[in-house]
User: Fold these one by one.
Assistant:
Number 1:
Amino acid sequence: MFHLILFLFFGLICVAGAVNLLVQSHPINSALSLIVVMASLAVEYLLLGAEFVAAVQVIVYAGAIMVLFLITIMLLNAGKEERTQGSRVAFLLGIPGVLIGGGLIAWTLVTRSNTVSVPIGALLGDPQQIARLLFRDFLLPFEVTSVLILIAIMGAVVLASKPEAVARGPRKDA
Amino acid sequence: MLSITAFIIISIIKSVAVVFVLLTAVAYSVWLERKVSAHIQNRWGPTRVGPFGLLQPMADGVKFIFKEDLTQPHVYKPLYIAAPIIAVVFAITSIAVIPFGNWVNLGPIAKYGPWGTYLQITDLNIGLLVVLGITSMGVYGVALAGWSSNSKYALLGGLRASAQMISYEVSLGLSLVGVVIQSGSLSLREIVDFQGGTFWHFIPRWNVFHGQTLAFFIYLISAYAETNRTPFDLPEAESELVAGYHTEYSAMKFAMFFMAEYANMVTVSCLATLLFLGGWHGPIFGPPIIQALMPVFWFCLKVFFFMFVYVWVRWTLPRFRYDQLMAFGWKFLLPLAVANIVYTALVVALRAS
């Protein structure tokens, strides 16, 4: 019972943070609300019993990736965004689109999903279980994903470096 | 077993005691820093307030509280006020999972049968990750302070701090993986239990003597960078940035950054003690009541040792240049930490087969 109350409470915080992320006009405030979303998601994982995933969520997303977001915003010194009325097309197509998409997802989850729902706190989320899944059952997808991320990083390095520097190869004087 | 009321009462007593000890330790590590640095430079340090200047932290505290708390007109107020709070809260929270002693039997005192408690606020089976997660959140205090101050020096300090902290967090985390592989657990208590006993009856089975020597030094170096201490104190390099991210802060808000820095030092020292120096393990002798308290004494002694080394290093080594700092972290420490993981994993796998 107490778990359920906490679960709903942090779910509400999560949604409120997500809404605030869109409403805020300053990029720093938006980034901070995203941190709130990430942190409350971590609490949700914790309440479900997946404590390892919760810790990783905080360390990786809230502690590292969002810091990079923050650094970027600080470096660019991005100011307040201007408020516009928004485009009419987006308004006319967007709201029905969201409604249809949300309805489809809800309908699939309610009627077509055959996953068993797990009671709160009963998820087996200790590190051994996760490791067994990652390094035995889903080893190939896991490794392929890591190679994919490596390629993405290399692509970012190539795109970000100056073209003549790439042509000349690594700097000799550095 | 413990009833729920007894559990709550004991937890409250433990929490209050631990927070009190932590805050006192923070105050007195400032005193230690001033005293040791003075002696290294052939000065006396604080001598006027109390014997050996021992009441100096109290005088400093009173001064901080009664100073004028300036808020510059050009700052972004909500974050300017929140930043020191974030820094200090995340610095203090992680003490909750740090074990500082073994099981203590309260039966003889309470006369209610087999009562007892672990000397630790909570034992989580992901304790190590919790400490890492909480320290990784601490960077927001510094980064936001730098940004919200709306001043060039503070912004540069905040940027430097956040870049440095996430860079060194990688090698810090990786240096701990070897220990985790070896002890097969993420619970700090189990990691310490794994280090009991001795090799050949005189070398303690601490991880630092048990194949993790390299990891220990990687951890120590990264920890210095992580807490923004010399030789990695570029976020507040006085000769370049005035005072870095806390240039615009005064009075108690400045003191909160100060507290956060020293509380982080204490946490990092505790972690080093638990993971590499065997936690509370040490020779135990004497009458029963002393025997019960000896583990806590050994733990505190080891933490004190690390705090002393912190100060010692500060007054021995000069500051790095920023590019040297980044190159050292990414090109030297990180490959070394990865090599340590591969080595440890191979040894453990060979032993198991």
Number 2:
Amino acid sequence: MTENTPQTRTYRVLIGKPGLDGHDRGAKVIARALRDAGFEVIYSGLHQTPEMLVQTALQEDVDCIGLSILSGAHNTLMPEVVRLLAEEQADDIFVFGGGIIPQEDIIELQQAGVRAIFTPGTPTTDVVAYLQTECAKRYA
Amino acid sequence: MNNQPPKDSLAARILAGDVRAAGRLMRWVDDNLPEAEQELAALYPHTGNAYFIGITGNPGAGKSTLVDVLITRLRAQNLRVGCIAIDPTSPFSGGAILGDRVRMQQHALDRGVFIRSVATRGNLGGIARSTPAMVQILDAMGFDIVIIETIGVGQGEVDIVRLADTNVVVAVPGLGDDIQAEKAGLMEIANIFAVNKGDLPGANRVVRELRTMLNLHDRAPDKTAWRPPILKLTASQDEGVDKLLAAIFEHRAWLEEHGEHLGRERARAEQFVRLIVAEKLNARIETAVKSPEWQDTIQTLLDRTSTPHDIAATLLNDILGQ
């Protein structure tokens, strides 16, 4: 709000756990890696619906939503978040996902608008680098 | 000041209740964008209606859980509730994990509730630099009650006192003996003490110690003075929170009855200005010390040919002359 203050944007990410599985280790590892890379990470906690995550994203004004799903319901839940964001005219908020997701599903999810999928074994540095690039594009 | 904000501006959308616009302006404020200033200016005439409740206390005292239950209770009275939940920024990376909301997600779909997670971004004092502006946004948006949950604090982070109408200090058993309660700071700002985790051993002792402390410090023989009630509760079981809410409303009534609410509002308004001035001055200082001449100036200090007070006087003249 001041003259001469350098303007740097701090990226904000919502890490969400939609659906019924309680395996939150992956979500927490990513949250931690993003924090250590200077992101502000809003963690939703377990058992969220796509509607809850989208309303949270609007209130928190995040740049992107990361969905961690290990229940097998990714084909339903991930596209639903993308759809609800569009419905709220918030499809500039991009969605990425992580979990045990078969290769053939990944292609479908990407066609449905999920920007990227990270499967087990992906180094956290890859995820961080990807998000830094994608978030930077929003403010270019 | 009857100028309406331009149509489609963030301010106009916020006044119409647009959640995304409010989220966005909060971001602008946090990221220090100059554009935020005129939006906040357009909102200011619409502020002054919300009641501000501060919730503060040690890390792990159960503040978020308590806020969650408070929101439920306030919603049952049909009051619209905004909440600013503050967590610390990592001093090493500048990042933060904001997890207060985890306890409050049952309200995510309630249009009468707006929760914003905020990182301190290096600000000391228990709240973020952006917090005063954010509560104004929620106020202008028409929220009846705004709850400010500070970071977990210890003894000195008491900026909340200038922001909130009613300050609730959450204490828990097991954090130290009665000497801790005697220390200045956090304990002095409480309008209400909530002894949370009341089902744990030691809760009654905390209540007793707080009571003793208040009696010793009863610096107001004046019978009309507000005496902070000490309430034992177990927020996770929703036990005793109704009494806390009643105490908050009693405190509000007391403030109004004694004209103190005007004093609080005045102090808060003044604080808004002080913060803006301090921030602008700081920015000027930061710019001034980046100039090439500044290094020479510091060298005169090291050579003992000038004094810190001399240099400070010169710097003040420079930045105020801008």
Number 3:
Amino acid sequence: MKNRFKYLVPIIIVMLFICAFLNNKKEKPSDNIVLTQEIFASFTHGILDPDPEIRNLVYDGKNVTVQYNILNGEQDASFGLLIFTNGVLQPFCINDGSDTTMYRFNVLKNQSVTFPISFDPVQLNEKENTVYFLLMLDPDFYPEDKTQPFGHNHSISQLLPWKLVNNSAGSRTSKINIASIENFQQKQIEKSPPEFDQKDQKSDSPLELNINSECPIELNNNAKKISVPLNISSKINGKYRVSVFINHEPINAFDGCDYIDIDCDKDTNYKLTVNIDSSDLKDSNNFAYAIAVPVDYNFDGLDIQVAKSASVILINQ
Amino acid sequence: MTIKRSKVTSIVLTALLLMSVFAMPAFAWDYTGYASKSTSTSYGTLTGQFNLHADDPNYYYFEESGWVDSSQTFSSMYAEYSIHNYYSGARLDGKSAVAYNDNAVYFDDFIYKPSSPPFTIYGVVEVRHTTTYTVRPTLTGTYGGL
């Protein structure tokens, strides 16, 4: 018995060292670079009234009104609220104030805020319409260092789409010009390999949108405009209305139009070249992003969502 | 010297316990980067999580997952990541995924090592139901540039 267990303790000690060695051999996360910007952790938002289970708004000639709620998480945060009706940026007012296309507000950590939103639909089809509510994180963020990414700032969180039923007489089209992809010259359309997995209903996101450019984008004094590549990658068939924003305002990026309608085919990449005019820029702190909003939404089908590109810095030299 | 059987058993058990504590990060949590954020919802806790593995010499293997501790399913679960050059801020890559009528979403991706500069990863996990719940994990560090 004595001989049998004599070497047990040394063997165990050796094994412990082996395990510790294996553990130390793993590549450790290096955290010597620390973000200077605090990260928003979490929040909850939605419409309390009308019933969010039904997601139905009614326009009967008077302004549409909803009660919107935000419950903030563990950090103070600022937000910007945007609304799109049939893919067009919707002016709205809060607490009977003046019209805006982005309502900016601050919410303390763990604070709940509820406010009424009222709007007169900028676009109305005769029957069904689609309204998207988007919440943008820290819309006033601008990197102190031009090489710092926006990170979570300017990213959007969205509600499921709401149906807007038109009970008033007729339709309404705004004066907004909308281009179509068929007539847009500066484009390249490519088929990509299919990835959508119908079987388990899990897939890549239906649409991805990116401004593919060197960062930051520089516009020198002599140039009146700059061409910027906008890539749209679609995994499903669906119609989207795309707009480009400078400093949160839509610009005439598509042959003088604010929006372009793209009837996306499944597994197809659309590479557009959009023009940004120097007159759309301020002296400093300019940024751009693109937003694609589904139109002709099928409420009986899968939920198709709004896509936003990452914000990119524009420098007007 | 006589060693009793019970004493041997206790030594072995203690050693095994210590070994499991030392070895756990090496064998069970096999990643080089990890980030997680959680928030409470009226259905249960929503968690968004990253794992970045560096075992392959050519690629980082990246996983993002989001789930709600609930048997309830939701209209859609959404996850997204974007990877940015730490020094220039330029977006290098990204991916997103959506799961319908589910309580979890998951995807994985590969990041080519030799061409990757140091990067930061930003992620989003959202429950889109009657209300939208969101968490945003971030993975910071000098990953890449190997």
Number 4:
Amino acid sequence: MRHGWLGLRIAGVVAFVVLIAILPNFLSDFRASEFARVGIFFIALTGLQILTGYTGQISLGNGAFMAIGGYVSAILILGRPGLEASQLEAPSWLPVGDGMKDIWTIPIAALVAGVFGFFVGLPALRLRGLYLALVTFALAVSIPLILREPETLTGGTNGLNLFGTTEDRLTGAIDNSVHIPVLDKDLTFNDWTYYLAWSIGLLGLAVAWALLRGRPGRAFRAVRDSEVAATSSGVSLASYKTLAFAISAAYAGAAGALLTIVSTIVTPGSFPVFLSIQLLIGVVIAGLGSLVGLFLGALFIYYLPVGIQELAEVGSLPDGLQDAAKSPGMPSVIYGVVLILVMFVLPRGAASFLSKVSFPLTKRL
Amino acid sequence: MAELLQQVVIGLASGSIYGLLALALVLIHRATGVINFAQGEMAMFSAYIAWQLVQWGIPYWLAFAGTLVVSFAGGVAIQRVVIRPVESAPVLTVVIVTLGLLLIFNGLATWLWSGEVRTFPANRPFPTRTFEIGGVVINVQDIGIILVTLGLVGALWAFFQFTKAGLALRAAALYPDSSRLVGIRVGWMLAVGWGLAAALGAVSGMFTAAAFPPLEPTMMQAVLIYAFAAAVLGGIDSPGGAVVGGLALGVFLNLVGTYADDLQDLGFPIDLEGLRLPVAFVFILAVLLVRPQGLFGRAAVRRV
Amino acid sequence: MRRTSILIGVFAAALAVALPAANGRETADPGVTRNSILIGGTTPLTGVASAYASVARGAEAYFKYVNARGGVNGRRITYKYLDDGYNPSTTVQQTRQLVQQDRVFAIFNSLGTEHNLAVRDYLNSVKVPQIFAATGARTFGADFRKYPWTIGLQPSYTGEARIYGRWIQQNRKNARIAVIYQNDDYGKELLNGLRRGLGRMAGRIVATQGYEVTATDVQSQVARLKSSNANTFMIFGTPRYAIQSFIYANRLGWKPLIFVNSVSSASNIMEIASDAGNNPRVRGAIAIQFLKDPTDSTRWVGDPGMKLYRQIMKRYLPRGNANDVYHVYAMAAAHTFVQALKKAGRNPTRAGVMAQLARLDVMSPFTLPGVRIKTGRVDRFPIEQVQLMRWSVNRRGDGRWVRFGALQRTPG
């Protein structure tokens, strides 16, 4: 039976990867851009899952790490010439460079965000539960304010605009065509961002899986389940808590950099408090401690508000209900009701549902 | 000097409003171990109910009392209908449910009353007369709000300390199984806790509409942030701590804003005026690092 | 693997249902068919700024009214507006969708300064009109040479504040000015405009205090401003903070002459600020206006423009709040667009409509009498004329705006 279970899992993973690879052929160009954003959520959720689901550290502030990654990426893509063209400038001691191709800024953004995450993890050593939640929440609230200064570097409230100032450093954004030499194929900008986001997403997932299978993963779980037992088993709480924060921040940073590349802009308003809350919702919907459910979590947090909008605009409800659905406030109510109902039906997230569904199937193998 | 005192007085006034909402947060946390993110929106909704009653011609204080009753009943109902089904779920699931409630109350208020700005009648709940002492202007309404807040803390403390119902509530929260054995209806005790918190929130909402006009659906969103900070600063299980935390936060924020200009004149490179909130958070973080349980919280003892 | 192909099939079917249907045969420019014209926009339907959603709804109501009368040159106007939640990154995505997927003729009346800035480069590079960007940031009228496909509508914040500065310079030589402003580009632009308008008197600004939208109240800022002993108080903030500024100034015993920016000058806001007659600070407060205020219950009785407004609201937006001045603003924008579209002829092109927008001369039923919507070769500020007005309170305690002086031109 174990042999069959493993086979099913491998088949599932392969199917998933294949699905991701060929999906754009079935999607309209715009849907591809939506799925790119689902991918961005997916990456951020993977990081948050490691921190909250596996290490048990609650974070209401991963949107702030996304913001850091987003700004780092934008500043590097612009470089000094790009900043100058926007009437901005970077201090001389900052290693900004003369403009970098967008994809190379992603790992740098992840690294910077990860370092930042490490420092945020330090207070986590003293604080837990709600106290930690407040500190991370404070981060989410403060970052959009802090990122407006210094205005000469970050562009203030208007942020940084990459469109038009970065020539070919921003792949495909301007002429809407990306040439892939290896496959000798041309992609639209939206398809390109889709593949970029999901390649990183799958890579991140693989890395997370490897991490969680090995020693770090066991250490993380030990920290989550019982700090006392972990310490007595020789697991250093300090190392693993800060490591978990750093890793989740790095994932979020990469997601933020991707968001900047996909939107061609970055502003403080791109990373509101609600973003951090959405990430938390996504992880809970996925199921804490599950990698499998993350895809569903990402789909849920992206498509629920969009779906409610579309329901109100083009849905075929009876007229009275249609009007009510469009009136101010209703979308919010519907969102809240759906959220609560989902929590009633799946209190442990999609993962519990998935395992319940697959169990009867695997029983027979 | 008068200016400094004026800022302190203003800070105490706004701080008492944060403290009042923080009190509601602490109450629910003590009763059910959860932070109710919807507390602010529920308070806002209660304020709208009061407003609507006044619009229908009901005198203010009658409407005030009526709103407290309705809010209490609403809090009980929410605990029974929405929170109880996920009682045994992981804490984060319950958190998500409260987020759902936040969205529902926010949307409902907008849907029912639109985003138009509104106000209560003048001089409600307290006269807005001012008097001056030594160059510092003090508002009777602010004094009234501070006194009521302190009074409520006292009443709450007395309720928990000296009444059977209060004892039952505390028992139900701390030792649910033993309480059941003694015959306490634990489920209903938790619901009563939510009801009381909702009523407190209603007071906070009505006071907010008076002290920070106008009445509008977004008015409690920032207050919730400050209330959360105040509750944690004071110790998440301490009602007194919540109010002290609120007052401290209110004063601190104003002092930062007041001296931001002077600091800049002295050469400080960053404009702190716009960063009052982050600076306040840094201050709270500093306190928490020294006392992780908050100013008045009980240090958690972990049994091996 | 069969399971996967079934999954894909289900996916594809679901998505095919979600894709918008084609709409008739296309002619020259995208978005135009024989009997319809599709325009798009973004607006915050949800989130903290959702109060501004009334703009899009008001415009939609006006277009429905026009469509019920045969549309423009036989074409019905379809206005598709999407929710960007006031997040500029979402604005970019939605705008791209409207242009690339829905293939709209133009982007109309999208809301927000950063939001319009975020898409301005893109829209100009693909030559899609960005019409009547709903923001007062000066750059939308000033930078038309660099961005020929973009045009704003309302008087710029700079222009408005310059009018206040000019008036003070001419009429209040002993002014000591304190300013409270929202700490973002909108508030800062007003502050800078004031400085420009004051000219040599700019040094009379003795104190400024900014506030963040994360603030619960601005009592602390007002107290600080009071201690500067200023006798003139400029309120450059959104309605909530404007109301508070009026009320706190009074409670703190400060008695300056108050100016309030037009975003927060609607009559219902002033009513609340007057605290049921207990706040004398609203008396004599000065603001500018360029639209007809629907909450002014006496002024526009019998005015055909406002009659039309109320009829349209009743018929096409019954659930909307007719007292919301944003609806009036939106209808002014929609009405002006319709005029330009009419003049663009039987086969409107994007370039053609932009050309008409560059030589507008429209009397709007929704703007103050005498305020013409006009643009020219070097003028891309459609609404430039404003009226100074003063809040007057009669013996019974009722307040209203009373216009004074001639129409002013806001220097862009």
